[in-house]
Amino acid sequence: MKQEDLRWLVCPRKEEARPCHGTLQTEQAMSHWDEDPREILEAILRCDGCKTTYPVVCGIPILMDELPQYLRRNYYFMVGSCRAQGSLSDEMQAALLNYVLLDLKTGEEELFPTARRYTRETQLDFLTEIGPYLCNHYDDLGSAVKPSNPLYEFLKAYSTRNPHAILEDFAARCSNGSQGLALDIGCHVGGLTALQAQRSRFVFGVDVSFENLLLASRILKGRPKRMDRYRHYQEGKQYHWRRLHAPSCQNIEFVVATGGNLPFKASSMDTVSSCNLVDIVPQPMKLMDEKVRVLKKGGLLLLSDPYEFYGVMFKRLETRSRKSPLRIIKQRMANQIRIVQEEDNVPWVTQKYNRSYMIYYNHCLAGIKG
Question: Which domain holds residue 68?
Fold first, then answer.
């Protein structure tokens, strides 16, 4: 990440349910990309307000409110992923371990009770699991199947009518050529973020998964090591290597954070987007409030979701009415967002393998903050 990008970031630590939102400064710069002092590879950031510190690993700030617990769950896989790219110093690994130790309550407590181990098998499992999403974000499903496939004609049309394409069409119509600052929340492996980078001066991609963001950085920025192909699962033990059709985007930075507690200044973004996120977060209304908080007056809000409202524990959102989830979301935004574009029943297709497809039908909307 670039040193100057810190001006948009704030501290996410909560005290009595209120985020600190203090200014972040570089306390210790451990290494830089290509020896350029403006390009941070590893560093420790410190909040000027509450003095909490946060690591920057492989150029990605980890701005989580409960940072020690997050690192405790993800330490092994994060360290293994970075080591595999040759982009983790012993100094940073020790710093990450110190954060984990801060979370221990007693000397008898197990250090990593839920952490995934980084092995060849878990790495292959991760690449197999992520393959369908890489296909959806960066490939053409129509070209990935044979004409004999019963869904062939449907998948051929999918490349121009999917949630990412519809949201970008909305942005082209509604942004009046704006070249401002954009934020893509729940960006996963970065497909929508890459599209936004083509029309925005700068884009932040946010996700809770460090591994997903590391892949996105490799695909779009070529750092730490460029990734230009992926394994496309067929069936059994059959895989095909396919190219990732991704642009080179140097106007993107990725940040590990939650959508319900965004580490960005209020009214700082010209565009805020999310796709397939509202129904999988534990507090969907908090996510919507945060999207509106960081959006400038007159800024563009982009949203696409199937609105099933299944949270992280796969429990439906409890409501006291028979209103649809979409109506609830619209009512939440009504006083601050003016909806200017909508399109319903937009398919989101994930090919698990050549005999299994998962299809959602999303509602897409664009709104202007008043």
Answer: 3-101
Q: How are the residues of the chain apportioned to helix, strand and coil, as percentages rounded to the nearest 5?
A: 30, 30, 35
Domain at 328, CATH number:
3.40.50.150
Residue 41 in domain: yes
**Residues 210, 60 contacting (CB under 8 angstroms):** yes
pLDDT at 186: 97
Q: Are residues 129 and 54 in the same domain?
A: no
Q: Helix 120-138 to helix 210-220 angle, to the nearest 10 degrees? A: 60
Alpha helices in 106-198 (DSSP H): 120-138, 141-144, 152-158, 163-174, 191-197
The answer on 219 and 159 residing in a single domain is yes
Residues 6+ apart with CB under 8 A from 299: 269, 270, 271, 272, 368, 369
Per-residue pLDDT tens digits for 52-93:
999 999 999 999 999 999 999 999 999 999 999 989 999 999
Cβ distance 44 to 54 under 8 Å? Answer: yes
Tokens of 116: 């995934």
Return d(Cα 244, Cα 169) in angstroms, integer.
Answer: 22
Task: Decide if 358 is inside a domain.
Answer: yes
Answer yes or no: is 227 within a domain.
Answer: yes
**Is 40 inside any structural domain?**
yes
CB 50 within 8 A of CB 13: yes
How far is the C-alpha of 298 from the C-alpha of 295, rounded, in Å? Answer: 8
Average of per-residue pLDDT across 207-228? 95
- Band the pLDDT of 317: cuts 50, 70, 90: low
